[in-house]
Amino acid sequence: MKIRLFEEKDLEEVINLYIDTVCEINGRDYSSDHIHALAPKRLDHYENWGDLLTVNTTLLAVKNKKITGFGTLTHNGDIHFLYSHKDHQSTGTGSAILQALEKTARDAGHKKVTVSTGITARPFFMNRGYSVLTEHYVSIDPMLFIQYKMKKYL
């Protein structure tokens, strides 16, 4: 597996990875209405993702020329996305991306990283040294989601 920077040509594959993964993996923890709110299958819903993934540091895991995961670190040291392809869960993909994002944050002078995550990914981050700062609800119309703000000191 290779970790590399996101390029604009990767956008459609990243969006499809996100949709497929949310529908299959997060579907274990959420209702179908929640999943539809999180990952609509309309590509126009993702029209600002190209800018979002380019403005921030977005890293991709690639194996055999296929993207197997992606993660995004903002300039403030917040992890915005971290997803492993539905067929690459528990293979080390997410951990490799997270380690690369944490190294990027350290290299940029950050002393900690934060992430806002839901029920599905909370154990992943807990097992990698993150602690819960707050628990709250967010609305993705019309659904409410529990979200955990977590941090890790680097």
Notes on the protein architecture:
The chain has 154 residues and is an alpha+beta fold. The chain has one domain: Gcn5-related N-acetyltransferase (GNAT) (Aminopeptidase). It contains five helices and seven strands. The protein has helices at 11-24, 32-38, 49-55, 93-107, 122-126; strands at residues 2-5, 57-63, 66-73, 78-84, 112-117, 131-140, 143-153. The protein has a seven-stranded mixed β-sheet with strand order 1-2-3-4-5-7-6, with helices on both faces. The protein is globular, with a radius of gyration of 15 Å. 26% of the residues are buried.
State the gist of this model.
This protein is of the alpha+beta class and 154 residues long. It is built from five helices and seven strands; from the N terminus they run E-H-H-H-E-E-E-H-E-H-E-E. The chain has a single domain, classed as Aminopeptidase, CATH 3.40.630.
What would you report as the Rg, rounded to the nearest angstrom?
15 Å
Structural class: alpha+beta
- Give the end-to-end Cα distance, rounded to a whole number of Å: 24 Å
Instruction: State the major sheet.
Output: 7 strands, mixed
CATH architecture: 3-Layer(aba) Sandwich
Would you identify the CATH H-level superfamily? Gcn5-related N-acetyltransferase (GNAT)
> Count of DSSP E strands?
7
Q: Topology as H/E string? A: EHHHEEEHEHEE
Q: What spatial order of strands do you see in the largest sheet?
A: 1-2-3-4-5-7-6
* Count of separate DSSP helical elements: 5
CATH class: Alpha Beta
Secondary structure: helix percent: 25-40%
Strand proportion, as a percent range, falls in 25-35%
Organism: Metabacillus indicus
Pfam family, one: Acetyltransf_10
GO molecular function, one term: acyltransferase activity, transferring groups other than amino-acyl groups
Protein name: N-acetyltransferase domain-containing protein
